[in-house]
Amino acid sequence: RSLKSIALSPEMRAALGTDAAELTPNELIRTILSAPVDLLFNGGIGTYVKSSHESHADVGDKTNEFCRINGGELRCKVVGEGGNLGFTQLGRVEYALKGGLINTDFIDNSAGVDCSDHEVNLKILLDQDVAAGKLSESSRNAFLATLTQEVAALVLKDNEDQALVMSFSAESAKRNIGLHQHFLQALESANAIDRRVEFLPDDKTILERKAAGLGFTRPEIAVLLAYSKIQIKHEILASTLTEDANLNMIVETAFPPTVREKYSHLMKGHRLYRDIVATQLSNKVVNEMGITFVYRMQMETGASIDNIIHAYTIASAVFKASELRHLIENLGVTVPLKAQYEMLFQIRTLISLATRWFLHSRHLKNNMKKTIEHFSVRIEQLKNLVPNLMGGETKKYLANLIESFHQKGLSQEDARTIATYRAIYTTLNIVEVATQHQFDLEQTAQVYFLAGEKLNLLWFRDQISKDTREGHWNALARLTLRDELDIAQRALTIAVIKSSYEESHPEILLKGWLERNKMAIHRWDSLLAMLHASPDVDYTMFFIAIRELLGLVMNSMHEQGIIS
């Protein structure tokens, strides 16, 4: 049969989505590439897909230019890149913008690189005993061979975590386009990235995408993910975090369980010890909290990366975030993926708020292990109490969230656990007040919520949560308002409990305090009435109102002799 043309059977034409009766070899390859299939997997050598805005000369692969197609011509649902450079980056973006699912070659190929890294790190570790004459080279090789399945499990876990953060970021890309733009601009300002080299969109293109209801594509998110991890790793290496005994134990997670048991004593002497610690820490923070988490914390608090990682580690441990993530990640197909992302979002939001809380507190100066233990024990005591003390829209929201998760496949208990963890951020304030003033923990929680409800602070929180204005300064204003409200509610709780040493019942305590502060409460109620009546409530009005509240509480504490 002549190679000039190939006859297609009806079955082949149907499978390839073409009406052509025969095709030349190059035409056939292009038709195969553009076939309406579920998965296109590239495992060969050469670049087969470019952007319609690129010429074949731009691609730089002359051999395959006669069988190359554009990203917009692909009709597959998903692309897997087993080979390198099968697509140009702009070809990927063009395909992704029309709804196709694609990462990048360095994401889809990362298991190979990861496996190689594990092999090198293991050899360097064991070679310490080989050099000391405690282990022969043949014994080392035999031992390495027994680790095959353990290394494979580590590699798969690394890649599952990376795939999850990619998908989670892509799911929220439209909502976070402004944040991704600011992060990219910050990387540029630090000379850490050249967006033209990485084929990332310029600001004009980003505005156009925003107007069209689009965000960064998965291939672009992959680039941001890589640079985020690189930047954080560099900052960790420039800090003292790798010497921190509470954090550097993460080095063990880079090695198989058998190696941890037999050779943990060698890890500190590993030639790449600091690099491994920095890599593991960077991967953990980004994979669990997202591409822009550290950047956002820096912008919101001005904190250094080492303090952010300290605060994050405490927050994550205190609220047992890893256990919750493990619960969600093991749901499999029993719960829709969108619902799982929503659950993960609840956990991320809690840990973000808690990280900010610890950054603003004095606890980073204390022993990390003791701080984690102190808060963990007390939050466990409050975990089941807090949901019953909640009120207003927050209580309704929680009830709806629990029911929603339950209907999507979770048991009632698991649904309640995951949904409640978003709400128990307030336990940090309760534990702090009870500890500083040696109050009963349960009484403090009851007064905290009763006082908040009576003075309509729940309404304030609901209004702050409902605000959807975009932009960095609006986001910062909402977070600052939340902080100010926390300060006011903590002070209010202290004032109420200390108002009577004879009385301990929360409701009676609050009633007595309100009676003694009638004039101030009347002033507060008047302000609330003005806020309720205003058609447009802006941040300035909220700040003024919260300052008024804090002022009346401080005056009350002054009159009680609590403060001078």
Written overview of the protein:
The protein is mainly alpha-helical. Helix content is 65%, strand content 3%. It has 28 helices and 6 strands. The chain has helices at 10-16, 25-33, 56-59, 89-97, 105-108, 110-131, 137-146, 148-171, 177-189, 203-211, 218-237, 257-263, 273-289, 293-301, 305-318, 321-329, 337-360, 368-382, 386-389, 392-407, 412-423, 427-437, 441-454, 457-466, 472-497, 506-516, 518-533, 539-560; strands spanning 6-7, 22-23, 39-42, 49-50, 69-70, 78-81. The strands form 3 sheets. It has a two-stranded antiparallel sheet with strand order 1-2. Strands 3-6 form a two-stranded parallel ribbon. α3 links the parallel β4 (49-50) and β5 (69-70). α6 (110-131) packs antiparallel against α8. The longest helix has 26 residues, at 472-497. The N and C termini lie far apart (101 Å). The model has no long low-confidence stretch (mean pLDDT 90).
Overall mean pLDDT: 90
Apparent shape: globular
Largest sheet data: 2 strands, antiparallel
Strand order of the largest sheet: 1-2
Please report the distance between the alpha carbons of the first and last residues. Answer: 101 Å
Radius of gyration: 29 Å
User: Could you estimate the helical fraction of the residues in percent?
Assistant: 55-70%
Strand content: under 5%
User: So how many helices?
Assistant: 28
Low-confidence stretches: none
Total strands: the figure is 6
